[in-house]
Write a structure and sequence with these properties.
single chain; about 375 residues; mainly alpha; 19 helices; Deoxyguanosinetriphosphate triphosphohydrolase-like protein
Length: about 375
């Protein structure tokens, strides 16, 4: 590993001390705990862009997390960063996501407006710190500081202050003193962006909501599509459309990965951090080059306008938001409908939010139909 990589032997530790494992480092244990937890399994039935019932081949939060982990590991190896840590962060980064994707999060945040709000990054930390019940001595998965810090990708100042009051100098401190997380956490964050840009193109075309002709107007995609056609002219045949899409996305992914490696190596060479702690004080160092950043931003804007705001996606996610809002209102008014561990909580609104956030799409739909008699999706 490079001198600026996170070293599990120098980890800031866990909230509850554990005996070291004979064959696994601390970050390996974090990854393994995440893979075996209930919240990770539930990601298989949580929306990425398209709801689970809309097709078997669309990405879910689980397949997205696996793709992020794969990209992050490959880049980490090239940069000499700790692969186990970046993989653990990547696999856990969406554990707190609600059913129905970002639309579900927005609905739950609105429901919780008078009770502290809801944010999925904060909820992911809450899952691994509190909501998983797998050990006799404590709640949560008892992950290392470095993994928990990476999971908390975003945090408002108010939430950071609340976490800091409970955990002085802990995972939220960087949002108050304006330092950066580990390089591995920075990498997991960027790999997340690379993954969802690529797979949302694939899912968008598969759904019929995007066409390759539309995507030809997006420079990051168009240049690699053109290169694929130049090298493999047969891909222009109508029967080869799916292969052309895959080859274009593959080349686009590779270009972004190599760009991150080159730009980050240059940033690290210029900053010359002596160790992992020094890297935190030097600003964001894992990055795209300037040209690739501009192209990635243009792609995100295209996807936002043409896919995420497509009338069919908006109409579907609006029904998902209705499910979340009505579940929240029903559980708050009739807590007997909740499992006992949630119904008996002192902070009932937060307990209701925890319960709903942990649901898969299909469980939320079944619960909504049971409680309201409505079937909003075929």
């Amino acid at each position: 590993m490079a001198v600026y990589a996170s070293d599990p032997a120098r980890s800031r530790g866990r909230r509850h001390p554990v005996t070291p494992a004979p064959t696994r480092n601390a970050f390996q244990r974090d990854r393994d705990r995440i893979v075996h937890c209930s919240a990770f399994r539930r990601l298989v039935y949580k929306t990425q862009v398209f709801l689970n019932h809309e097709g078997d081949l669309f990405r879910t939060r689980l397949t997205h997390s696996l793709e992020v982990a794969q990209l992050a590991r490959d880049i980490a190896r090239a940069l000499g960063l700790h692969e186990d840590l970046v993989e653990a962060i990547a696999l856990a980064h969406d554990l707190g996501h609600t059913p129905f994707g970002h639309a579900g999060q927005d609905a739950l945040n609105a429901c919780m407006a008078e009770h502290g709000g809801f944010e999925h990054n904060l909820q992911s930390l809450r899952v691994v710190d509190t909501l998983e019940h797998r050990y006799p001595e404590h709640d949560g998965l008892n992950l290392s500081f470095e993994t928990r810090e990476g999971i908390l990708k975003h945090c408002s100042k108010a939430n950071a202050q609340r976490i800091e009051a409970r955990e002085p100098g802990g995972v939220a401190r960087r949002f108050l003193d304006h330092t950066e997380p580990s390089l591995e956490a920075q990498l997991a964050n960027l790999a997340d962006e690379i993954a969802y840009n690529a797979h949302d193109i694939d899912d968008g075309v598969r759904s019929g909501l995007l066409t390759q002709d539309q995507l030809a107007a997006v420079p990051l995609f168009a240049q690699h599509r053109a290169a694929a056609l130049h090298e493999h002219p047969r891909l222009a045949e109508s029967a080869m459309g799916r292969r052309l899409l895959y080859e274009s996305i593959r080349r686009m992914l590779s270009a972004q990965v190599y760009d991150v490696i080159a730009a980050t190596r240059a940033a690290l060479a210029a900053a010359a951090p002596a160790d992992a702690d020094a890297a935190r004080r030097l600003g964001p160092l894992v990055c795209f080059g300037e040209a690739m950043r501009a192209q990635s931003t243009a792609l995100k804007r295209f996807l936002f306008a043409n896919l995420y705001r497509h009338p069919q996606v908006v109409e579907t996610t609006a029904r998902g938001q209705q499910v979340v809002r009505e579940l929240f209102a029903t559980y708050l008014a009739t807590p007997a409908q909740l499992p006992p561990e949630f119904a008996d909580a002192l902070d009932r609104p937060r307990a209701v939010a925890d319960y709903i956030a942990g649901m898969t799409d299909r469980f939320a739909l079944r619960e909504h139909e049971r409680l309201t008699g409505q079937r909003l999706f075929a």
